[in-house]
Design brief:
Elements (H helix, E strand, L loop, with lengths): L7 E3 L7 H15 L6 E3 L17 H12 L2 E9 L2 E2 L1 H10 L15 E7 L10 H11 L2 E2 L4 E3 L12 H21 L11
Parallel strand pairs: 1-2, 1-3, 3-5, 5-6, 5-7
Antiparallel strand pairs: 3-4
Helix pairs in contact: 1-5
């Protein structure tokens, strides 16, 4: 396959997560466009709480760090709890975005990042703003402006997205792939810098 490496990370620990459904759909859309898009489920790659020490010695950390570092872009499919992405989402970024004493550097530099959000209410559409700013300023990530934000009223009785919201998911994923393709031959690379 000549496509890009665009993993989708499901950041919900809920066994009946709608954000996991979004992750699966996004991966299928990317695969149908010729990209390699594995779904990495944090329920299966459970990170311990970030302690800036022993977390770096765990197998889930090694797998997730490698997947992010090698990726052309990352989709974060996250639930929105209390007006913010899940704690698991932030913990993932804390661990894989740290520089360890063993010389391990942050995995997130220069990544294209897209958020797909499953929320109960429409009113927390801006919930990813703080995390997006941190990714952009700390790691020089390019944040897809097409956030996929889906509230409980955006799903039909069969568990699928209603048509206009399905179109938004498809556009969000298409923009993600296009941004990653455009930036795949960038002339610069970033590190910790202000």
């Amino acid at each position: 396959m000549n496509g890009l490496l665009l993993p989708v990370i499901s950041c919900s620990l809920d066994p009946e997560s709608r954000s996991r459904d979004l992750a699966t759909q996004a991966a299928e859309l990317l695969k149908s466009a010729g990209h390699h898009a594995p779904v990495l489920d944090l329920r299966e790659h459970a990170l311990p709480a970030f302690d800036n020490s022993s977390v770096f010695e765990t197998e889930p950390f090694a797998r997730l760090h490698r997947a992010i570092a090698e990726a052309d872009g990352i989709i974060l499919a996250t639930p929105i709890y209390n007006w913010a992405p899940s704690a698991a989402t932030k913990s993932l970024i804390e661990a894989t975005g740290a520089t360890g004493d063993d010389g391990t550097s942050a995995a997130w530099f220069d990544k294209v990042v897209t958020f797909l959000c499953a929320a109960g209410l429409q009113q927390s559409y801006m919930a990813t703003s703080q995390l997006a700013s941190s990714l952009m300023l700390d790691f020089k990530c390019v944040i897809n402006p097409y956030v996929g934000y889906f509230s409980s009223q955006d799903w039909d009785d069969d568990g699928g997205l209603i048509p206009d919201r399905q179109s938004r998911l498809e556009k969000t994923v298409a923009v993600h792939a296009e941004l990653a393709a455009l930036l795949s031959h960038r002339s610069y690379s970033s590190n910790w810098e202000v």
